Structure formats: C-alpha cells, structure tokens
Amino acid sequence: MIFRSPHPDVAVPDIALHRLVLARAAERGTKPALIDGPSGRILTYAALTRGADRVAAGLAARGFKKGDVLGLFTPNLPEFALVFHGTLAAGGVVTTINSLATEQDVEHQLRNAGARVLVTVPPFLDRAAPAASKLGIDQLFVLGEAVGTTPFAALLATDAPAPEVTINPARDLAVLPYSSGTTGFPKGVMLTHRNLVANLLQTGAVHTLAAEDRVMAVLPFFHLYGMQVVMNLALWYGATLVTMPKFELEPFLGLVQQHRITRAFVVPPIVLALAKHPAVDGYDLSSLRRMMSGAAPLDAGLETACARRLGCELVQGYGLTEASPVTHANSDEQGRSRPGAVGPPLPNTECRVVDVATGRDLGPGEDGEILIRGPQVMQGYLDNPQATAATLDADGWLHTGDIGRVDAAGFFTIVDRAKELIKYKGFQVPPAELEAVLCTHPAVGDAAVIPIPDEACGEVPKAFVVLKEAATAADLMAYVAERVAPYKKIRAVEVIDAIPKSPSGKILRRVLKERERIVRA
After folding, report:
1. Where are the beta strands (DSSP E) in 31-164?
2. Structural domain of residue 443, as residue ranges?
C-alpha cells in the first residue's frame, strides 16, 4: 500500500541550487543574511551574492573546475554560506565534514570524496592540516590566518566574474555528505542540485518562512538538516540567520532574546533543555513563534511541555541524509500538527510501510520499515554499488531502516530503528566502528555495542566485552575515547562471557538490547 502526501505536488524547476537560493539576494541589498551570534558580525544579502561569485572566480583561477570536490570543515559561521554557494557557482561539489571529526575521519572523507581543496578554521588545523598533507592537498584555506595556509580572503580578492558553468541539475552533484546509512562505516551520499532544490520546495510547502523571520542557526550546517532546512531554506525566503558555532544553553537563550528570534530549528536535547532547565525563565523568549525538531524521535510529552513553556508552536519532522533530508513534517500552522508524530509525507513523496522479514506491504496501525520514493532521494553512495543496491531498490524505493507506523489520518510515527546506528544528540554513531576499536585493545577478546537510552542525549553507546585479561571499564572507555570523535565515545561497559551471534557470525544485538531492557526494568 502506497501512502501519499495530503499536500498537492510542487513543480520542481530545472535550476541549480545556488541560483534558486540566491535568486533574489542582490535585490535584498543591505539586509542581513547571516549574523555571527558571538561577535555580531553581519553578512548582507548583497555581500553574500557578490562574495559567492568571487569565491567561484577565485577557485576557477586556481584550476578548480566543474565536478571538483571542495571539503568544508568549519563550524557555523556566515562564511560557510559564501564557501558553499561559491563552490556550487564554480560547478563544484561540497563535501561537508563534521566539526568533531578526528584526523582519521577527515582523511578518510577527503580521500574517498577525491577532494582537491579544503576550507577550514584555525582551531581545526590540528586535524585538517595533517589530513590534507597526507593526501597531497596543497590548497588549504582558512577563515582567518594561520602559518602554512592561505587566507580565505585571498579567494575574495578578485573582481573577475564567476566562471560560466553549465549545470545539469538532474545529473550534476551539488553536495556529498557522509552518512553511515543503514549499517557500517560512512559513505558519500550523492545528492544532485535537483534533489536539493526539490526538497527545499517540498519543505517550504509545509514550513512557510517569511522574509521578516529571524532564524536561530545552531544546528550544524555540515549536517543536511542544518544545511537545507535552516541555512538554504531561510536564505531562499530572505530571512535573517543568527549563527552559533555550537549549542550552549545560556548563549542560545541570550541570542534569542537579543535578536528577537522568531524561528528555531532544534533537536531533542535542545527541546529537553528548553522544557526543563531553570535558566530559561531568566530570558525573554516571547518572540519565538515556531520551532521544529528533527534528527531523532521526540517524546510527545516532552514536545508538548516545551511548547507550553515557551508559548509557541513546536512540531516534528523526519528525514535522512539520503533524502536531502526531509520526507515527513507536521505543518507549522497552528492546530495542524500531532504531538509525537513526524507528520504526513511531504509533497511529491510516496511512502510504504513493509514487514521487515517478508517485505509485505502493511496498512495503518502496523509497524514496519518505512520506504520512501520521491525527487529528493539520493542517486546512491559514491563508488559503492553494493551499499547502494542494499538501500535503494530497482523501483526507486529508499529503504530507511527505520521502523514506524501510519495512522488512519496519514500521520507517521517513528517507533524504532531496524538499522543499528546509535543516535547521540542527532549524530550517527555506527556500532561496528566502536567494536572494531575495542577489539584492538590487548585485553579485549570480543565486543558488541548497543544504544542505551539517555534523557539528555537520546541514546549513548554501551559496550559488552569479553576479556582476555584484566581491564577496567574506565580503561576501555578511555582507550576508545582517544581514538574516536567525542560524540562517539562509549559511555558504559559490561563484561560478559560471550557475545551472542548468529550461525553466520552476525552479532545478535537484539539479544543484548533485550538483556539491557530487562535489567533496566
């Protein structure tokens, strides 16, 4: 059974992403497009469109051509939009890198993506510079100045026009984010200009921002949620973004109050803080009219408590990197959302709910894997046909790996994940990666990692280990912490006699999850 959107389809224009987003930027002139929250530094719409053209011209002058890949490794700053849209204007592809990535993570992504250029900030050079050096990337730009690098300002120091590049929106890639997909290690997700343009129009049909809106941009732009739903959607509508390099509650509250923020896009840990932290009462948040939460499931009770405390609309949406990213969302019109649900499908989006074991289509009220089909669905994983075939079937259905249900009114709810990724504050943590690190410890004979619930973070990784010799939980957690990004750290360890496995050797994580559930109960 195919479930379709209650919204009418939108027409997807044949246009490059940067041309859609910046189409009216020049006429908006001195209006602030992005404001750096900590410093108050302003990038106007006129400076954004002019700067993007200069970035494109500067890259072209250095031999950057259509199809080349630029690595973007920065926190949320106004210049992120300059680099992003300037790269697209040069005909290039942007691969965004998680701010918490280790040197090894950065090297892997840049190597796999085939990046020729890297743009970063001085505080990230301890990871960016060694990775670039190992790969022979000699075009390393920094926002600011640092020894052995080229200032980003050098790209802007030209009056040359942007290069004339012909882009086929349906075929040419715009971004190459990295996702672990349903299992395993990060893979490059191939998203075209058309994928991203379509998703902006689909999302905009449900979330109608206005040019008068002031949007809090705390969700990282390197993540598709922050890149598309926050940065590009707001710039397309002509709103003003206030950026934060990372979430800290009181600075966040202060910026909402100072800039009279009207819209905020958040994740469940931020909703938890806004619903329960006493500091919230010390700030005037009355300007907030609407908020949207995504990236991980949000409890209906917490959703309602936050909305009541702040006196604004709070709705949920759902998506994944492989879908540019949004597939479902509640309408932001008052009274049209359903707490705890992620809403109906977006326009132009088809969904199925299928039995995990048999693939049989299920009806309303039945739990199964959610499948998605629409113009926002990726082209596949870069240089990985096997992983692509396992996720994207011959009929164009994207197998999300998420378990959900739909009610009689067409509202979807996410209830569990068939895929084994751990969602820590919206970040994806692949258990296989942590298990591989653990098994390099001389005291560990075998290991398995599962998610355990955490009120503040959503989920955190817990390891079950079989020991060959004595080792403490603290020793093992410290060992892993030295080798992975901070958000991937293991937060609990339990020693067991054997890791449950299937006859083929696959770890039976469901057995460990059930064991954990019984213990917690």
Report:
1. 32-36, 42-44, 69-73, 93-96, 115-120, 139-142, 150-151
2. 422-520
Condensed to tens digits (0 to 9), the pLDDT of residues 396-447 reads 999 999 889 999 999 999 886 666 778 888 887 888 789 889 989 999 988 9
Is 363 within the bounds of a domain?
no
Specify which residues 240 forms β-bridges with.
214
Q: Give the tens place of pLDDT for each residue, 84-101.
A: 999 999 999 999 999 989
Amino acid at 35: I
189-206 burial code (b ≥16 CB/10 A, e <16): bbbbbbbbbbbbbbbbbb
The CATH number linked to 141 is 3.40.50.980
Indicate if the alpha-carbon torsion angle 286, 292, 296, 301 is positive or negative.
Answer: positive
Domain count, the chain: 2
Evaluate the CA torsion angle 208, 214, 215, 221 in order and state its sign: positive
Structure token pair of residue 132: 């670039």
Q: What is the CATH number of the domain that holds 475?
A: 3.30.300.30
Distance between CA atoms of 521 and 519, rounded to whole angstroms? 5
Joined together, the tokens standing for residue 222 give 């390197």
pLDDT at 182: 55
Q: How far is CA 111 from CA 84, 415, 430, 477, in A?
A: 20, 36, 20, 29
Is residue 328 within 8 Å of residue 317, measured between CB atoms? Answer: yes
Q: Phi and psi of 154, rounded to 5°?
A: -65, -30
Helices (H), 392-430: none
